[in-house]
Amino acid sequence: MNQLSERAQQVLEAVVIDHIRSGEPVGSRTISKRHLLQVSSATIRNVMADLEEMGLLLQPHTSAGRVPTEKGLRFYIDSIMKSKDLEDQEKRLIQQALKDVHKDLATLLQKTSKVLSGFCKQAGVVLWPKITLTRLKHIEFVRLRAHQIMVILITKSGLVNHVVLHGEEDVDQDELDKYGRYLNDIFRDITLGEIKERIIEEMKNEKNLFDELYSRALKMTDQAFQSTFESSELYIEGQLNLINNPEFSDVERLRHLFHAFEDKSKIIRLLDLTLSNASGVKVILGKESSLNELYELSIISSPYKRGNTMLGALGVIGPLRMDYSRIVPVVEFTAALLSRLMEEPE
């Protein structure tokens, strides 16, 4: 798109800001009164008509004002928007909310989604760490009782995950220690996703059936990994906040909205896109997600890390008409805070 003139940018910004505030189409007289652009309403109308021709604004009714299109919102977010700085009091409230729960990962992530929802008045989402991306530091097998074994996975990023397996045959601790030494030698410093793929390939390899130790160790590790990867959680808080947006006052649209939240895999796929964006906050608007169920929603998200390793993602989901200039810094600050808390010893 060609660079917009300064006046066109001012008018587009005014339409976006007023539409976010009111949810209604914005007219030229409103812009002239509220934003004091020092030009006549007629001039503003002409600029708005030009922006409409470019696909940045839309006139929903003949006599109504204009609303921003997705294309207009994208230009505003990428080229015009000035993010609002969080006040020190807001930062302290977020820090205090997460301060006392950081030693328990599940509680911390769930509380983070509540904080995002509460501060942004939309739905807050946090994706459990993507364990497939982390590298193995140590694997250990612990016999709890007959036919019950705990498998402990420790990653180089410091995450600890444990799975309890129930087996048909009983295995003593000496044998389990052999499994651990064997697997630590061959899998250390490989990502858990790669280990999972290698285990599947090795289990297909008939020659390994002759090595009973290796075969049993692989089978047990495969069970542990399957359970670990299936336990990936998505915490969602504040879906009911979305009802307060006039966009979802229609019963059919509201039903469609809650159907979108029922299928968590769609939201997980959106958050996964964040993990390929190491630069920070990512905004996905409506149809940009390529997911029909989420066409009326936007997501503002950011990865959180432990050291240099991206673990998972968090964000805020709401209608296209969100206050991006306020929510982007909230998401950015919360992601940075969660990353710092993940560095602290468990």
Structural summary, described in words:
The chain is of the alpha+beta class and 346 residues long. 48% of the residues lie in helices and 18% in strands. The chain has three domains: 6-80, Arc Repressor Mutant, subunit A, CATH 1.10.10; 88-130 and 232-343, Beta-Lactamase (2-Layer Sandwich), CATH 3.30.450.40; 132-230, 2-Layer Sandwich (Enolase-like, domain 1), CATH 3.30.390. It is built from twelve helices and ten strands. β1 and β2 form a beta hairpin. The longest helix has 20 residues, at 324-343.
Taken from the alpha-carbon principal axes, the silhouette is: elongated
Largest sheet: 5 strands, antiparallel
Q: What's the gyration radius in Å?
A: 26 Å
CATH topology of the largest domain: Beta-Lactamase
Number of strands: 10
List keywords for this structure.
18% strand, 346 residues, Arc Repressor Mutant, subunit A, Enolase-like, domain 1, five-stranded antiparallel β-sheet, Beta-Lactamase, 10 strands
Question: Concise description?
Answer:
Helices cover 48% and strands 18% of the residues.
Write the layout of secondary structure elements.
Elements: H1 6-22, H2 28-35, H3 41-53, E1 57-58, E2 67-68, H4 70-80, H5 88-99, H6 105-120, E3 123-127, E4 136-145, E5 148-155, E6 160-166, H7 173-187, H8 192-204, H9 212-230, E7 234-237, H10 251-262, H11 264-274, E8 282-285, E9 297-306, E10 309-319, H12 324-343
Antiparallel strand pairs: 1-2, 3-7, 3-10, 4-5, 5-6, 8-9, 9-10
Helix pairs in contact: 1-3, 1-4, 2-3, 5-12, 6-12, 7-9, 8-9
